[in-house]
Known about the structure:
It holds the Pfam family HTH_30. InterPro entries: CdaR-like_regulators, PucR_C-HTH_dom, PucR_C-HTH_sf. By secondary structure, this protein is α+β, with helices and mostly antiparallel strands. The protein contains 13 helices and seven strands. It is about 50% helix and about 15% strand. A hairpin with a 5-residue loop joins strand 1 (about 25) and strand 2. Helix 10 (about 230-240) crosses helix 11 and helix 11 (about 245-250) crosses helix 12. The protein starts with a helix and ends with a helix.
Amino acid sequence: MITELKTQFAHALWKPGDNLSDRWALQSENRDTVSFNRQKLTDRERLLLSLLLSEPLLPPAPQTKEEKEWHAYLFGDGQQPPTEETICAVHFQLEKPLEDFAAFREAVLNTFPPYTCFVWQNSMSGMLLFPSAAEDVDLNAVVELIETDFYIGISFMVGTPVEGPKAKAAWRFESELFACCKDDQTKKKRHVLQAAEAGLAYLLKQTPSLELEKLRAHFLPQEIVDDKELVRTVRMYLLENMNSTKAAKTLHLHRNSLQYRIDKFVAVTGIDIRTFPNAAFVALLLP
C-alpha cells in the first residue's frame, strides 16, 4: 500500500531540504513509513491519508551536540558536521516499538566505540555513526543482548566507510538497501548483514522476475530446488565463503556430510561452486 500511496501522492512526498516542521511521517499496519510535506497536501488529501495510515510514535530527540548536527544534516537542512575521518553507519531496525528508549540507548552505546552518534530516523529505525577506523563491534552479541534484556528483535546492516561530503546520499541509499532486504532477512533469521549482501538482494529485486525464473529453471533442476536441506547447505557454504569446516560447524553437520551434499549439487547441476565465479552465480539463483 505504501508504494501505491507514494505514487498517488508523489507531488507531496517530503524531500530533504524541505522545511523540517512541514514533515508528516505516517506508518502502515506493516510499520512501513512514508513522510509527506504537509504544505503540499490539500485538506481532503490529509484526511484520506489519516484514515489509511497512522502516526508512528515519536523517536527520542538527538541528545548530544554531534547527534543534533548529524540529525539536522541527514533529515533537515542542516550543514554537514565537520569531520576529517571516514564514518561508518550501522543501520538498525526494531521489530516493534520500544517501551524504554533511554535504557535501550544506554545498552547499545555501551557496546559501540566511544563518540558513537545515535541518530533515530523514526521510532523503530535509525543509524549509529562512528569513525570507520574504530574497532569492530560484535553485532550478533548486541542482537542477543537486546533480545534478552528488551524482549524485542533487532536487525543490523553495516554500511561502507563514507567521507563526510558523500554521507547524506550514501546513507540514504544504504537505508534503501536495508529496507529492500528486510523481509528476506527476517525469513532467513539473519540479524546482521553487510551492505554488500543487501546490495545483492537489491540487485536481484531489480532483475525482471521472468528472466530470473528462466535462469533458475535452466541451471537448477527441480530435484535440487525441492531438496530444502541441500539448498540450505549450499547457501550456508556460500555464506561462509566456501569454507566447508565453518559451514559444517554452523549447520551442526559432520564435515563429510556437508561435502557429500556439495558434491551432489555439483554433480546434478554441473556447476562447480568451489570456484568463485560459479559460487557468485549460484548465490544469485538460490531460491
